[in-house]
Amino acid sequence: MNITMEQIKDLRGRTGAGVVDAKQALSESAGDMEKAILWLREKGKGTVAKKSSRETNEGVIGFYVHGNKKIAVLVSLVCETDFVARNQTFQELAQNIAMHIAANDPLVVRPEDISDADVAAEKEFALKQLAKEGKPEAMLEKIVEGKMKKFREERALLTQPYVKDPKKTIEQLLAESVQEIGENISVKEFVRLSI
Known about the structure:
Layout: H1 5-15, H2 19-28, H3 33-51, E1 58-65, E2 71-79, H4 82-85, H5 88-104, H6 116-133, H7 137-155, E3 161-162, E4 165-169, H8 170-181, E5 186-194
Antiparallel strand pairs: 1-2, 2-5, 3-4
């Protein structure tokens, strides 16, 4: 099948993919735009997984201070090289993540980082709430399990919907950045201060 420059340009505009990748995706999908987009997404997941095992010893401290000067955030965003750490796109990413933290107040970076004490306290609260609602005993465990999963996702930075684009999580935002920048990127830690 003959792939035109218009098709490549259209696919690049919709996905941000490089010329070679866009052409390959269109060839693999016989010119079907939707299949080409899917092909690029699958390829990107593989790229992100490959890069996630690389060491991240460089990075920047992103910061955000709210207009009322009552909330401030510092976030350590790490990457593989100082070249990427100095890149404006990377630095803007760090600042956007800091702003997100100020707005959404996560407890930890990853869901598994939430302490057992916090989970136990939330579980106890959920059980009391369900008892008041008169839920059947047989359903309690399943309901509480779902509530704990949701609690972890809501309180962990990586699983929160991104404040600037709620259709994607912070984890997906980082994965897109890994694809765009070409290096492993991760949030090491953060601090949120408020008065």
